[in-house]
């Protein structure tokens, strides 16, 4: 009897868990009326409020794209700032629906942490920033340096590996807050600051005198950054993944926020399906047929998002590089939207 009761309890728990998954994040988000997106909160160009309190950044716009797909309104999103220690637990616990916080895809995060990463929204790599007055031109000259680094990140592990591999020594200065870590670096507590190269550009842009600092040429890692969702909810993963890719596909199609209404008249069957003129994609995702149209109209294509937040005409002055379309020598590529 006891064995039977235990077996029944196990079955019941499995059914409850299955029911919870079946309910789905997409349905929960729709019922709530807004998307909860975990973001950086401190990283200029990727996730940070401006002087008026309006959230700006490439990751912020990725979250807005998801909101546009779900609600037809890119503004139906609440941004939740998370640090490196709380970002994954916040997603796992359901505090946020999606993490759009410059997170690197890794094997352990996909498995041990129970996360699924959507399409990459920024290809990056780890580098080093130093003050020009230090007279250093290469990371190989940093033997014996003190290095500012965020804890609990792939950056911290890569740093140790790089110095060990090259037979060099360093002393890490670890502070669990990007803003405080930046202040420490600019105050001279560290000889170097290591992070993803895009983050270094964003941090340098906020320096008292940005021209006093240089980013060294070495890139010591691969850091594909992407939105993340919880394991076990394929329907929600599909929405986040396709919303991220829709901006890239739009750039491939030559569709922008300015010409998207005119492109509704296109006779190209791929564009007709993509913009919802020919129905099917929206139904498959569980959202409105104009989901991609709403993303492009309200947020823009990937090129627009990139240039607006981190491009050569911003304070970060980043070239497209690996983040150019595959047709222009980059890695940005999407499967057919059909």
CATH class category label of the largest domain: Alpha Beta
Radius of gyration: 22 Å
- Mean pLDDT metric: 92
Name the CATH superfamily assignment of the largest domain: Periplasmic binding protein-like II
Low-confidence parts: 1-22
- Work out the strand percent: 15-25%
> What letter string, H or E per element, gives the SSE order?
HHEEEHEHEHEEEEHEHEHEEEHHHHHH
Q: In this structure, how is the largest beta sheet organized?
A: 5 strands, mixed
CATH architecture of the largest domain, by name, is 3-Layer(aba) Sandwich
Query: Would you tell me the structural class of the helices and strands?
Result: alpha/beta
> What is the helix tally?
14
What sort of overall outline do the alpha carbons produce when their principal axes are compared? Answer: globular
Estimated helix fraction: 40-55%
* Termini Cα gap: 53 Å
> How many independent structural domains?
2
Structure description:
Helix 3 packs antiparallel against helix 13 (291-298). The longest helix is centred in the first third of the chain and has 22 residues, at 2-23. The protein has helices spanning 2-23, 25-32, 58-71, 87-93, 107-111, 154-165, 178-186, 197-205, 234-253, 260-263, 269-274, 281-285, 291-298, 302-309; strands at 35-39, 48-49, 55-56, 77-81, 98-99, 115-117, 122-124, 126-131, 145-149, 170-174, 192-196, 213-215, 223-225, 228-230. It is α/β, with parallel strands linked by helices and 338 residues long. The protein folds into 2 domains: 26-121 and 226-328, Periplasmic binding protein-like II (D-Maltodextrin-Binding Protein, domain 2), CATH 3.40.190.10; 125-222, 3-Layer(aba) Sandwich (D-Maltodextrin-Binding Protein, domain 2), CATH 3.40.190.10. The strands form 5 sheets. A 5-stranded mixed beta sheet has the order 10-9-11-8-12, sandwiched between helices. Keywords: Signal, Transport. This is General L-amino acid transport system substrate-binding protein. Residues 34-263 form the Solute-binding protein family 3/N-terminal domain. It comes from Candidatus Moduliflexus flocculans. Residues 1-23 form the signal peptide.
């Amino acid at each position: 009897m006891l064995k039977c009761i235990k077996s029944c309890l196990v079955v019941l728990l499995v059914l409850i868990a299955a029911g919870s998954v079946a309910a789905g994040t997409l349905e929960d988000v729709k019922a709530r009326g807004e998307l909860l997106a975990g973001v950086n909160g401190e990283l200029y160009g990727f996730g940070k409020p401006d002087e008026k309190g309006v959230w700006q950044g490439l990751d912020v716009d990725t979250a807005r794209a998801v909101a546009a797909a779900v609600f037809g309104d890119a503004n139906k999103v609440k941004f939740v700032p998370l640090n490196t220690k709380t970002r994954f637990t916040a997603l796992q616990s359901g505090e946020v629906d999606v993490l759009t916080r410059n997170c690197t895809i890794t094997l352990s995060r996909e498995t041990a942490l129970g996360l699924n990463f959507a399409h990459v929204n920024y290809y990056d790599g780890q580098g080093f920033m130093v003050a020009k007055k230090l007279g250093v031109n290469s990371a190989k000259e940093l033997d014996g340096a003190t290095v500012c680094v965020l804890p609990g990140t792939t950056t911290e592990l890569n740093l140790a590996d790089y110095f060990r591999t090259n037979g060099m020594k360093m002393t890490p200065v670890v502070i669990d807050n990007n803003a405080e870590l930046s202040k420490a670096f600019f105050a001279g507590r560290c000889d170097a600051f290591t992070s993803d190269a895009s983050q270094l550009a964003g941090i340098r842009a906020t320096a008292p005198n940005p021209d006093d600092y240089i980013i060294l040429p070495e890139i010591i890692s691969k850091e594909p950054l992407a939105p993340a969702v919880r394991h076990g909810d394929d329907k929600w993963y599909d929405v986040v993944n396709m919303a991220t890719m829709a901006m890239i596909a739009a750039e491939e199609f030559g569709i922008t926020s300015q010409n998207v209404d005119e492109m509704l008249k296109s006779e190209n069957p791929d564009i007709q399906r993509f913009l919802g003129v020919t129905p099917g994609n929206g139904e498959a995702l569980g959202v409105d047929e104009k989901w991609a149209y709403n993303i492009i109209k309200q947020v823009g294509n990937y090129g627009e998002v990139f240039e607006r937040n981190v491009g050569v005409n911003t304070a970060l002055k980043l070239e497209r590089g690996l983040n150019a379309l595959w047709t222009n020598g980059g890695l940005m590529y999407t499967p057919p939207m059909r």
